[in-house]
Amino acid sequence: MAAVASASPISSAPWWRRALPHVLAVLFFVVLASLYFSPIMFEGKSLAQHDITQFQGGAHEAQEYAKAMGREALWTNSMFSGMPTYLISLHFPGDWSGYLQTIMTLGLPAVVANLFLALLCGYILLVALGVRPLIAVAGAVALGFSSYNLAILAAGHNTKSIALAYAPLVLGGVLVAYRRDKWLGAALFAVGLTLNVRANHLQITYYLLLLIAIFGIMELVAAYRAGRLPEFFKRTALLGLGAALAVGVSFGRLYTTLEYSKYSNRGRTELKTSAPTAPGQAPAAAAADESTGVDRDYAFQYSYGVGETITLLIPNFYGGASAMPLGTDSNLAKAGLPQEYLAGMPTYWGQQSYTAGPVYMGAVVCFLFILGLFVVDKRTRYWLLAGTILSILLAWGKNFETFNYLIFDLLPGYNKFRAVSMALVIAQLAMPILGALALSRVLRPRTAPQPVVPADAQLHPALAKAVKAAGTTVAAPVSGEAAALLPQVLYAGAITAGLCVLAYLASFSFDFAAPIDGELTKQGFTPELLTALRADRADLLRSDVWRGLLFIGAALGVLYFHLKGKLNTMPAAAIMVLLVLVDLWGVDKRYLGSDKFQPTSIAASFQPTPADELILRDTDLSYRVLNLGNPFNEAQTSYFHKSIGGYHGAKLRRYQDLIERQISNNNQQVLNMLNMRYLITGDPKQPVQRNPGALGNAWFVREVKTVNSPDEEMAALSTLSPATEAVVDVSKFAQQKAATYDVTGSTIKLVGYTPDELNYRYTATNPGLVAFSEIYYADGWQAFIDGKPVPHIRANYVLRALQVPAGSHTVSFKFEPKSYAIGNGVSLASSIALLLVLVGAGVYAFRRKRVANVPVAAVPVA
Predict the structure, then answer these.
(1) Any stretches that span the bilayer, and where are they (predicted)?
(2) Which of 20, 228, 596, 788 has the fewest CB atoms nearer than 10 Å to its CB?
(3) Any idea where the domains of the chain sit in the sequence?
(4) Residue range 166-190, pLDDT digits in tens
């Protein structure tokens, strides 16, 4: 009897040799991210991100308080007269996932880390699917450098970018759980979803879950046909536990956001009449809006044009971004337009009101995606194709209203989101994945009769034994398989190139007119200049067609020569990495290039104006400021003052109502009750005006008027004199009755201020009602008189009010939401559980690897 033992050159190799390709890949990603953002890494510059600048302004008060006090400020008065910080700047100590993110980003600066994460997570996904490292690098580059990823960073949508970066990690966990190891897959899924949810961009998470749902349906059908439903449900249950754990880690953030959504402008409106069309005009009757989401027109405001879908392949088909630079060789320059105007011309001629740039997947990626429809296994290709098609249909929005209005009304939670063009992120995930799998299929090493080394080569005895046992041979195409793949590669190339040619031919039938052209004419654009601009739009389209054909031809050539045996696997894969990178990098730089960086930090951009300096001389504890220059879309004022305005996508619904129906109609009495002490006018001769009618932090009212609905309460503000009167909606606060008070000699003063605690002292000759110039928010604010909790009510549609006894007393308001305390506790428990899962997964993977490396038991041989 004799015994044989199986051996594998991969499993028997030292751990460092197995890890080396992955280490090199990670270093490559660091280099790529650092080079792309070289102004940040090597020149000390920062990215000029509009939304991040606005965020810094709105979050400044809360951040400074946290630094000084060592605890979070749960409320800020710096924007919209006061709102929770849940969606502005709030940390949950119980959520430990931030430490994991710090480890994964290797300490890289913001935005550099975002791009690195996108590359790293894409690589992990593809390696988990069994794709070899170099081809996984190509797929990771396709995922990370998709133009949308860089365009949103230019705009400052960092949380969206982070959520997108972690999406491949979530998908990797799902795919591994169903198709390989359910335990490791569930652990990877839990980690990926934890980090994705932590980014707190629920719209991206929602689209990701739609893609996972499509995959789950496909797997369910396959499991049913194969008679393995019990195993399918076991794996699904494990993923469900992973999802619960991920939600648990971010439970504090999600719970407070869910609570706030009821009160934000993303939630239900209580008003049942439309706003007047002119100051003083009575509101027209309107049907009650019982929606719990955003308005349909608002949601579909940014809908991708049906024809614009071609930008996935040809980025400048519709002119690129809303404002693009044109060179001195452009038609406009030749027509005589001064050079200073060429830096930002309206080259975009599509249907969207504004775009920072098209969603471009890459000509090479599109070619590989179509190839994947031929060569990747059916279950995978159908899932990714279905996701891509759904993505495109959803992005069309109002341009395909028959489908999308139905989805908006029926799909749970979908009506909470806006900017439906963002649905293209599904395709942004699906297309590179299918393309990478197609590339892996074509560049798969194939065995041939030749040994790895010549028979007479001198090898180390251990290596010679491993080679002999494994029977490893050199990678070379097998003619039969190559013959089967070659036509499919050619078909894919012909289809992709054919689309480019059709686009080129179609361009001669376009007029390249844009909605903005009428405005240009009003601003002095001559017919000759307008003709030149349209010619430039045509040139941009046709230039990108030729560019796309060049990249498609190069990629096709690489695969052709490989299948013909003229190009080995490794150099072919390396060239494909380079083609994908150069293709996407060149387009990305159009939307996030060197002109987007500034020599100073974002914090340094907040310099007080002369108006700010004048106002800051007033050292009273609390008062508000209104900046007349676009007040509800800027946060510069919020950085220095407590602002009537601000910049945020989810302000309080009632405050938005107040803006639309009273403040926008210049109701001075409403501004007075909000304690607007100063106006920033924008006039250099008089930059600041003091408002003598500001009512201060709190005051006693002489009369309480009652109404029976929110509409009546809002209407009453049009004629209310808040210095002496208050109006209360008794449909919400039945305990309050109409009343008059003798307030002679009664005074109240703010004596202590922090963002989430206000303290007052008052003296009242009689019991009465005090109105406070603070925003009412039921879930968290608690009133105290002499340290004892007492109920308070809402008055004047948005303010707090409190019944107080006669005498000298103290009043305190403290913001102590239960949702934060409960949420933080659940987050802490879930973080501990996630840590245990990670440790367990590591031990399991180590033991599994050891078992895999144990020689097979002796088998009798004749």
Answers:
(1) 19-37, 106-127, 134-155, 161-178, 205-224, 236-255, 354-375, 382-399, 419-439, 489-510, 545-563, 570-587, 826-846
(2) 788
(3) 607-690, 698-816
(4) 999 999 999 999 988 899 999 999 9
